[in-house]
Design a protein that fits this description.
This protein has 300 residues and is α+β, with helices and mostly antiparallel strands. It contains nine helices and eleven strands. It folds into two domains: 3-105, Phosphorylase Kinase, domain 1 (2-Layer Sandwich), CATH 3.30.200; 116-298, Aminoglycoside 3'-phosphotransferase, Chain: A, domain 2. The chain has helices at 3-23, 65-80, 116-128, 156-175, 180-196, 234-243, 249-258, 269-284, 288-298, and strands at residues 29-35, 42-48, 51-58, 89-93, 100-105, 141-143, 146-148, 204-206, 215-218, 221-224, 230-232.
């Protein structure tokens, strides 16, 4: 047995123990099937005497990443009001002497029913109607592997400028330093943010990293997974959704039936995409650098 198999068996056994404590019943792991599709964490489907569960784990990551993901899923599930599937969280463990992990409900893949776009639109709009008094979240969490500063603020333009763009630019300078002329472009943009964003935004819950890979069709209908949840302007959600495509006009029509977007939301779409472009540069480097600079210049 190789080292990975040994570690996987260890985590599977530990997950079974935690599930037994959570459910108050003896949970017996009958089988573990490795699942593909993840680019960061290891994932498995656990078949037990109490049904199927989804397990993902890692030791080479931030110590609290699975705790923060669990919080995001739980908040989304409250906001969704059963209008869209969010996997139920059963256990989360931080990285320590053993890898960290997350155990959730296993959502069995399903087939398209022909109205998935409408269900997703209505479901996401329902989540975006879940409000808060401030922008941010209860703890800092992660967009992919990147730390997000979720310190509460009452002003959306300030939150986006300081907690998202400036915070991320500071991280980038420590890992992939930008040239002085590029930094100058971003500094000029940061000075203009307050004038580029309308003052009438109010905090609503967003998934935070909703590209097509974090949305799946299940037997329960459309489902959202792998969140980077916080309270923001709903327009922030649309930035990552439009960055890589995969969401139809039928989705937007359904969304607007419940939570209409402002008529000029697309004029700010690239501005909000800048956060995700910078994050991709921080994580992967390459052409995202010039793309970010181009976006910033377009708003000066």
């Amino acid at each position: 047995m190789n080292l990975f198999s040994e570690k996987n068996n260890e985590i599977t056994e530990l997950a079974g123990q935690v599930l037994s404590e959570k459910l108050g019943e003896n949970v017996i792991i009958e089988s573990s099937e490795t699942l593909g599709g993840g680019c960061i964490n290891h994932a498995s489907k656990l078949e037990t005497n109490k049904g199927a569960f989804f397990l993902k784990w890692n030791s080479n990551c931030a110590h609290d990443i699975f705790l923060r993901e669990a919080e995001g899923l739980q908040e989304l599930k409250k906001a969704a009001q059963n209008k869209i599937a969010i996997p139920e969280v059963f256990a989360a463990k931080e990285v320590g002497d053993t890898p960290g992990f997350l155990v959730t409900e296993y959502l069995k893949p399903g087939y398209s029913t022909g109205n998935d776009d409408e269900l997703l639109g209505h479901g996401l709009a329902t989540i975006h109607n879940y409000k808060n008094e401030k922008f941010g979240f209860y703890n800092n969490n992660y967009c992919g592997a990147t730390l997000q500063n979720n310190q509460w603020k009452t002003n959306w333009a300030e939150f986006f400028r300081e907690n998202r763009l400036r915070f991320l630019l500071d991280l980038i300078q420590k890992e992939r330093p930008l040239a002085s002329n590029e930094i100058s472009v971003f500094e000029k943009l940061l000075e203009k943010i307050q004038h580029l964003i309308p003052p009438d935004n109010y905090p609503v819950l967003i998934h935070g990293d909703l590209w097509s890979g974090n949305y799946m069709i299940t037997e329960k209908g459309p489902a959202l997974i792998d969140p980077a949840t916080y309270y923001a302007s709903n327009e922030m959600e649309m930035s990552i959704m439009t960055m890589f495509g995969g969401f139809s006009q039928r989705f937007f029509n359904a969304y607007n039936e419940i939570r209409p977007l402002g008529k000029d939301w697309r004029s700010r779409n690239k501005l909000y995409q800048l956060y995700h472009v910078l994050n991709h540069f921080y994580l992967f480097g390459g052409g995202y650098r010039s793309q970010a600079v181009t976006i910033a210049k377009s708003y000066l």
